[in-house]
């Protein structure tokens, strides 16, 4: 018995249940997403983001497969309200990735994403992330191993190149191999190459020049694939421009800095008729969640650190941020700290 049948013993019995609706579901969700961000997009952050947008696809932080398999804490925990939700995995072993993907599917995740774009030295040392772009056949084996044991979409997040492997031909070959051999039909492409040995992770998000046209060219050459663009996108208007050429847009740091962007996604990108939420109401809608988390031992600051940018550009926002930062981690801090911080916001009827 091979490892796939051990993980999913009844695979053949269910194979006919795969259908096009899964692909359609993924196309809908991938139109706009928030990027996986280390030390940012944890479950508290994602719960908050879901208050701002019902349609946005949310991603976990990158999770190492060994953390899932050997870790003492539950690294797959999330709240049901977070859906649609994707788990981003980092790893290079087909058997272990298949095990984690199957476990994630059982836990209810809507998508599994393989990280082939992170440039950090720690990730390189473990042979994960962007360095795997040079090994398209291995990446395709990893994707295929996960596809063989799950019914949910398996996607790849990658760069346009790494180091001196930065030609369009290199990128084209990578996508071709992983889509054909790995049967992957969705790629999230950060439109910068990664310089693995000369730049820090932060510098790799800012210094290599953006090349949106290269990502557009990918879509023209692979019209049957879902191509989602990431990198340097700051506004909904910019997202709309990219959506004229591509299937989806992913924004990361700008959303974390100014989460109010998400309040316009459903209306402007998904034609929702729901009203844009009031920022004060958004904060107060978090209170039941905060109280539940506090009762289980979560520190208030672990939640409120994600909402600091909500009042970006509004009078009193600086005092709001300062008060929460100074008081949310104090022993016994609760809802009253958030209420006191809200008093600094001058426009109580502010619509995001």
UniProtKB/TrEMBL annotation:
Catalyzes the synthesis of 5,6-dihydrouridine (D), a modified base found in the D-loop of most tRNAs, via the reduction of the C5-C6 double bond in target uridines. Specifically modifies U20 and U20a in tRNAs. The active site is at residue 118. The keyword tRNA-binding applies. Keywords: Flavoprotein, FMN, NADP, Oxidoreductase, RNA-binding, tRNA processing, tRNA-binding. Pfam families: Dus. Residues 34-343 form the DUS-like FMN-binding domain. It catalyses: 5,6-dihydrouridine(20a) in tRNA + NADP(+) = uridine(20a) in tRNA + NADPH + H(+); 5,6-dihydrouridine(20a) in tRNA + NAD(+) = uridine(20a) in tRNA + NADH + H(+); 5,6-dihydrouridine(20) in tRNA + NAD(+) = uridine(20) in tRNA + NADH + H(+); 5,6-dihydrouridine(20) in tRNA + NADP(+) = uridine(20) in tRNA + NADPH + H(+). The gene is dusA. Belongs to the Dus family. DusA subfamily. Belongs to the dus family. Transmembrane segments: none annotated. One of its GO terms (molecular function) is FMN binding. Its cofactor is FMN. It is an enzyme of class 1 (oxidoreductase). PROSITE patterns: UPF0034. The record marks 115, 202, 205, 321 as: Interacts with tRNA. FMN binds at residues 88, 157, 190, 230-232, 252-253. This is tRNA-dihydrouridine(20/20a) synthase. Its EC number is 1.3.1.91.
